[in-house]
Amino acid sequence: MSKRMRFVVVAWIMIMLILPLDVLAKAWTFTDVTTESRAYDEIKYVVDQNIMNGRSQTKFDPDAYVTRAEAAAVIGRSLKLPNTKNDTGFKDVPASHHFSGYISEMVERNILAGYPDGTFRPNEQLTRGQMAMIIGRAYFDQFSGSVSASASDLMRNGIAQGIADGTFGERLKIKRSDFAVFVARTVEPSFRLSVVQPPTPQPEQKPEVDPYVRTMYVTSEHSDLNVRTGRGVQYPSIMKLPFQTKVEAAYPVAGWIKIRVNGVEGYVSEAYLSTTYPQPTPKPSPGMSKPELTGANKYLIYPEGQSAPLFASANSSSKVLTRIPTGSQVRVLSSGASFTQVQYGNTKGYVRSNLLFNVFPTTPAKPTTLANEVIIIDPGHGGTDPGAIGHGYNEATATLAIAKYAKNYFDNSPFQLKMTRETNTSMSLAQRVDFAHRHNGSLFISIHINSFSNSSANGMETYYYSPRNTTRDKEARAIASYMQNRAQKAWRLNDRKVKTAPFLVIRFTGMPSTLLEAGFITNKSDNAKIRSAAWQEKMGRAVYLSTLDYYYHEHGMVSETLPLYEAIGEKPSKRIH
Length: 577
Prior knowledge:
Its EC number is 3.5.1.28. Residues 26-85, 86-149 form the SLH domain. It comes from Savagea faecisuis. One of its GO terms (molecular function) is N-acetylmuramoyl-L-alanine amidase activity. Residues 214-277 form the SH3b domain. By secondary structure, the protein is an alpha+beta fold. The protein folds into four domains: 27-191, no CATH class; 214-274, SH3 type barrels (Roll); 297-357, SH3 Domains (SH3 type barrels), CATH 2.30.30.40; 370-567, Zn-dependent exopeptidases (Aminopeptidase). It contains 15 helices and 22 strands. β20 (460-464), α11 (471-491) and β21 (495-500) form a beta-alpha-beta unit. α3 (40-48) crosses α8 and α9 (395-410) packs across α14. The protein is globular and about 75 Å long. The model is unreliable at 7-26, 196-209 and 283-288 (pLDDT under 50).
């Protein structure tokens, strides 16, 4: 090697050593994505943000299809979730799998789910319809279960478009380049398309409008609102905005909105912005309370935020007329299964029907004695709704039997027990929630039986709802954990673990709540226990014991619970949460 050549090599090595590692990591090395490529800007964005990687150091592979495991990793990185390797519970995703942490996080948040045979199928390729639902669940809290509704929401927000034949193409497999485009548009508003789409849209079109499409106001009344450099409280605050400050706002993503104030851009929590000018909260008079409503008046309750949209028409794609603060009273004009027409102030519009209740939710005080604790047991279904049916037996019969066996134990304890139904009667989900609040429930336990079209599906699982990681949410996770533990000891079925889900009865109750799915009625082996009086009694006992475990471990009520364990020949479980 010549001296000149040696000098060049040494100089190049020195430059590489001096460059920061993040600069080296972001050097563009993909030969199959150039500045002339479709979606170059969006692909470069998600790569630079460490949201997506190439299939190799030199190939992004834009035309390859996205797998379920890749989708979990991409969504996980964009939401800043950990990829801590752990046991996923799926037989085809061991803890050693490079995306096991992301997959666990996605399942925990109900964004992705496994299959009844106990697999996750990480290498299965996604369709455009599945992609729409995943993005809706991950970023917009849309758990409708409808591909068409999810696709409509993405198109309405300028994230996705249809294909040349005028459809969304929900059954077509999605390419990595298109997935990069949709994710980029979701997390960075400047990539989004104009809401008014041209007749023949092209995926690479850029918006010609200002992404800050709405005027909104700060609703944080008692403390100034932090504006942060990124989505999440882990990012530093760059300024604080007082109550009623006017801002220019883009679309929300995963509970955060990018805003602009006096030329400065940043991110704030969606919960503290409203499209209507907020008024100060009136100071309550002594003894002021929230009465139970009757007739046409209802409370609008929105657990995930401070306000819910009032739509111009009975669909979520229509214009948002205003936002109604949670806890507000509205007048019902006409009811529907999905949307209800209401009047709020002088404005008439539509809200989601499942947000309306007669009783205002209350969060119970910290327990001081078991005699003051009101346990609500909710046997699922009943009356005209038999629930799941399998092998000639129905869910409503099983849940009521288990609840009555549990009642026998609670009746011999200091607890106050209330059952949403004690006979084979019909009761809506909203009525069950209202019942729990009307009786000032301390703990809510809903009992259900699972089913599936494939009779091989089996086992039990227990759910809780945790949107904000509050004290109530942590306690809900605790009771769910003790419930799953005791139920498993009672019946020894396949352990499908503790999970989260936005089931209405545990989503809208103000007290810690859990929902037990005690086996699959459609599985012959599970069904044998579900319909047996002896096994029903064991499950009722498990419901009671899990409640004792909750108060023993989570509230330190040792002296009151120990005699109750001893009275039935039991001991406290280990602390498992």
